[in-house]
């Protein structure tokens, strides 16, 4: 059963079956029955017998029937010509059909056949620009105050002790230097002054020999 339903031709016939049944019941059967009754003398409430083409001979000899047939054919012909002709004229009115040159057609085929390059990630998604800040000048400022100034600017502090004649605990210089623009969150090295070591003179007693 599954193999039967997987067949495309079979499924097509199944989908067409309801429409086919309706056409047979409401179009083909009435048309065939009316054609058959035209060759008989059947009347309402009485079954008829075969009379051949006597009914059609009678109708052809009737002037009203011939006029009705002429009017029907004339209306069908005129209506069909007007509908199709007017529709085609309206469809093409003011719409000239463009004719493409062979070179343009060849370039169009080439461009459609060639795969379009995939966009690079750098073009599709722009990387956000990081926030930057200039390194503040903290030279001569005490270490604690310098650290607070850097933190207020979004920077980190790294302390390095350096021998200097400046007051002990003050910042001698920074790396990067003051004014240099760096990304927020960068580390700034603080070189903090420490006094040079003083040499102790030797004791006179220690210099004497025993």
Feature tags:
210 residues; alpha+beta; Trypsin Inhibitor V, Chain A; two-stranded antiparallel sheet; 13% strand
Describe the structure.
This protein is of the alpha+beta class. The protein has three domains: 1-55, no CATH class; 62-92; 132-194, Trypsin Inhibitor V, Chain A (2-Layer Sandwich), CATH 3.30.10.20. Helices cover 49% and strands 13% of the residues. The protein has eight helices and five strands. A three-stranded mixed beta sheet has the order 2-5-3, with helices on one face. The longest helix is centred in the first third of the chain and has 30 residues, at 8-37. The protein is rod-shaped and about 160 Å long.
Q: Strand-residue fraction?
A: 5-15%
Helix content: 40-55%
* CATH hierarchy, class of the largest domain: Alpha Beta
The mean pLDDT is: 81
Order of helices and strands: HHHHHHEHEEEEH
Identify the strand order in the major beta sheet.
Answer: 2-5-3
Query: Which structural class fits the helix and strand makeup?
Result: alpha+beta
In the CATH hierarchy, the third-tier topology of the largest domain is known as Trypsin Inhibitor V, Chain A
Number of beta-strand segments: 5
Largest sheet: 3 strands, mixed
Count of individual domains = 3
């Amino acid at each position: 059963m599954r193999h039967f339903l997987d067949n495309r031709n079979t499924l097509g016939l199944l989908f067409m079956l309801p429409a086919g049944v309706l056409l047979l019941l409401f179009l083909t059967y009435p048309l065939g029955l009316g054609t058959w009754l035209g060759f008989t003398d059947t009347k309402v409430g009485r079954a008829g017998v075969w009379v051949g083409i006597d009914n059609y001979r009678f109708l052809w000899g009737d002037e009203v029937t011939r006029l009705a047939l002429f009017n029907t054919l004339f209306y069908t012909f005129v209506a069909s010509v007007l509908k199709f002709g007017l529709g085609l004229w309206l469809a093409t009115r003011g719409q000239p059909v463009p004719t493409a040159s062979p070179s343009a057609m060849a370039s169009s085929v080439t461009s459609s056949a060639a795969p379009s390059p995939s966009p690079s990630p750098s073009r599709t998604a722009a990387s956000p620009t990081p926030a930057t800040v200039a390194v503040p000048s903290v030279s001569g400022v005490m270490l604690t105050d310098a650290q607070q100034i850097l933190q207020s600017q979004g920077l980190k502090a790294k302390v390095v002790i350096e021998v200097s004649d400046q007051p002990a605990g003050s910042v001698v210089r920074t790396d990067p230097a003051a004014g240099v623009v760096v990304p927020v969150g960068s580390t700034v090295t603080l070189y903090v002054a420490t006094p040079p070591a003083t040499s102790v003179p030797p004791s006179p007693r220690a210099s004497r020999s025993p």
